[in-house]
């Protein structure tokens, strides 16, 4: 599954993300931001990777991972969307190509949230957040065409299937 990057490149990425303070520290976020800035600055390299695609949806492609972090390339087909969610771990992402619209939400109870802000994220955009939140958002690709983003999460992909903590339902504010 981690065959998208060479073993040497995977090792370099994972070493860059290792900090003594772990994945819930500002040092880790700074390291993740640096890795993402490097990766989004190489869109041709990322687009040449043999990434899986899902018609009408998005596909997650594991690029590198260990017991502390996982690095994913996500290919967004036009019209695809995540659920409204927050994360149990640190979450960083960068846009490689296309554009992804990020909508932020405010929880009104344990399962419902209202939208508060929406921004279109263009190639080169990088963001990092700790799970101390609230960090409730939804990612969508309105098109045209596909988009590719790189996500770095502070969790072991072999222990947990996803970075999502809670899924919310949108309500009108």
Automatic annotation (TrEMBL):
InterPro entries: CDO_1 (IPR010300), RmlC-like_jellyroll (IPR014710), RmlC_Cupin_sf (IPR011051)
GO molecular function: cysteine dioxygenase activity; ferrous iron binding
Entry keywords, A to Z: Dioxygenase, Iron, Metal-binding, Oxidoreductase, Thioether bond
KW Metal-binding (keyword) present: yes
Domain of life: Bacteria
Any one GO biological process: L-cysteine catabolic process
Keyword field contains Iron: yes
A Pfam family the protein falls into: CDO_I
Cross-link 3'-(S-cysteinyl)-tyrosine (Cys-Tyr) per UniProt, renumbered positions: 91-153
Alphabetized CDD domains for the sequence: cupin_CDO (cd10548)
Similarity comment: family membership: Belongs to the cysteine dioxygenase family.
Full protein name: Predicted metal-dependent enzyme of the double-stranded beta helix superfamily
Organism for this UniProt entry: Bosea thiooxidans
Lineage, opening ranks: Bacteria, Pseudomonadati, Pseudomonadota, Alphaproteobacteria, Hyphomicrobiales
């Amino acid at each position: 599954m981690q065959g998208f990057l060479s073993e040497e490149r995977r090792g370099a990425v994972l070493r860059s993300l290792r900090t003594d303070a772990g994945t819930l520290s500002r040092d880790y976020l700074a390291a993740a931001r640096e890795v993402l800035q490097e990766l989004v600055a190489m869109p041709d390299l990322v687009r040449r990777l043999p990434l899986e695609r899902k018609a009408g949806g998005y596909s997650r492609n594991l690029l590198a991972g260990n017991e502390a972090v996982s690095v994913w390339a996500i290919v967004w087909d036009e019209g695809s969307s995540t659920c409204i969610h927050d994360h149990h771990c640190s979450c960083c992402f960068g846009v490689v190509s296309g554009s992804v619209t990020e909508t932020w939400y405010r929880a009104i109870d344990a399962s419902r949230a209202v939208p508060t802000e929406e921004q279109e994220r263009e190639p080169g955009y990088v963001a990092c957040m700790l799970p101390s939140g609230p960090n409730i958002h939804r990612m969508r690709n309105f098109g045209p065409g596909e988009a590719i983003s790189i996500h770095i999460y502070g969790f072991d992909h072999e222990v947990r299937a996803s970075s999502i903590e809670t899924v919310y339902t949108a309500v009108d504010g």
